[in-house]
Amino acid sequence: MRLSGICFMGLINWLLQLFGWRESPPYDPDLARLTTSPRSTQDSSHKLRPQADEAWNQPPGGNELENSQNPNQVRYPPGPSRLVPTRRKAQKIAERARSLPYVETKGNAPYRYARYGSQTGHYLDLSRDGDEARLQQFGLPVFHTPEELAEWLGLPLNKVAWLVHRFSGGRPASVKEAHYHFHWVKKRLSGWRLIEAPKSTLKQVQTKILRGILDKVPVHSSAHGFTCGRSILTNARPHVGQAILVRFDLANFYTTVGFARVVAIFRSLGYSREVSIWLGLLTTSAVPGNLGFQEQGPYALAAYLRRHLPQGAPTSPALANLSAFGMDIRLSGLAASFGATYTRYADDLSISGPKELGYGLKIVIPLVQQIVRQERFYVNKSKRRILRSHQRQSVTGVVVNAKPNISRVDFDHLKAIITNCLRHGPSTQNRDQIENFFNHLQGCIAYVSMLNPKRGQKLSDLFAGIDWNR
Fold it and tell me: Is the pLDDT of residue 377 over 70?
């Protein structure tokens, strides 16, 4: 009986420590050697082990100074690289649950379009959990209820409710009733992409949300796409002259970001849950069920049926950058641990570094894919590229072997078009029937001048001699 009682108390103590209800006992190396496997760890932080095999192969005596300074260090055996996830303590989870209360109000609704608790029979007031101090920190407009949001947008509340399909179950009943123009665009390699361009009223609302809220929130320093002061050139410069360049591509970047993540972004800025839900509805899209599809079949609509960031809305790039903030932090830290550099332009990820990075690619690539997946994105493995210094290295179309430059093939092609316009007239070269061919060529020349001013000047001199009446 006494032995069984001791075993039972030991089980209880183990469960208390497992769920964080009791602190773990002091570390005992001798006891740990008998009771803990080499792979286990009590550290609650993320652990990267780029040199796990080397550390495991060192003799136990190894470095006496290191052993004396780190008596509790755990050595990992050889094996596949992995990240040890952080374990949340029960106390932190309880504090988070207590910090998100909702208030039930008896009688009349606390504000228009308040949500009704079907189980309790009372209205739910979701407007009281905003954080004005955080809103002021970013310099954002303060509003807690749908009425205040509609007043800031300059529209009647009923019209804002109409824009979010409040009266039709949150989804347009047909393409005609949708607030987006839909059209399919064929991808360069295979498949189709759905472009969802907002109609005039919704576009004005989204533009105000972009300028008044999202543009004031800084993105990670590694993100260079659709950010003021950054471009494909700033995205390419950190990778100039590197021995190894690894490129990744995210599949379905915008559609992967769902409604819940968008609401969480606005909540993190300090807005109440009620306002965050309305802002999330205004910046996401759910396609109608009668939308036509291409030869892929009806399953092509599966990714667009749930609420997602629409590709074509002015707010989508900014929200996508904010949703990838955690991924940018983790990938930047991973690259730095290998002496490499990480940047991201929209869905294009680039990691470059010295030749030593090539020795750790078997560790870096799986860890990048694991981090991307944990952040709820997907890597398109068919577009992954490993480029070395003897190859042409390019990042978002910019050649970075020696300096940022345009590829010779692209320059020669553009020069041939401008030369033929000079000789035979521009009407003979507009084979794709571009609406404003003059501005199109000017934009191409400006792009070349940004990367290589000397080559851009040559093209400008040729362009100046074109007779646009021919």
Answer: yes
Give the alpha-carbon dihedral of 199, 200, 201, 204, to 10 degrees: 110
User: Is 98 strand, coil or helix?
Assistant: helix
| pLDDT for the residue 432 | 81
- CA 207 to the chain's CA centroid: 20
User: Looking at residue 119, what DSSP letter applies?
Assistant: T
Beta-carbon-side half-sphere exposure of residue 30 (alpha carbons within 13 Å): 0
How does DSSP assign 123-161, residue by residue?
A: EEE-SS---HHHHHHHT-----SHHHHHHHHTS-HHHHH
Distance CA(32)–CA(439), nearest Å, equals 71
Helices (H), 19-101: 29-35, 52-57, 64-69, 90-98
Sign of the alpha-carbon torsion through 316, 145, 266, 211: positive
Residue type, 142: V
Coil vs helix vs strand at 392: coil
Closest CA to 351 of 260, 225, 248, 442: 248
Helices (H), 195-293: 200-212, 232-236, 253-256, 259-269, 273-283
Q: Alpha-carbon distance 134 to 267, whole Å?
A: 10
Q: How confident is the model at residue 83 (pLDDT cuts 50, 70, 90)?
A: low
**Positive or negative: CA dihedral 20, 25, 31, 33:** positive
Summarize pLDDT for 298-308 with one digit per residue, the tens. Answer: 677 888 889 99
**Coil, helix or strand at residue 167:** coil
Query: Shortest CA distance to 315 belongs to which of 386, 382, 254, 390?
Result: 254
Quick: pLDDT tens for 241-298.
999 999 999 999 999 999 999 999 999 999 999 999 999 999 999 999 888 877 666 6
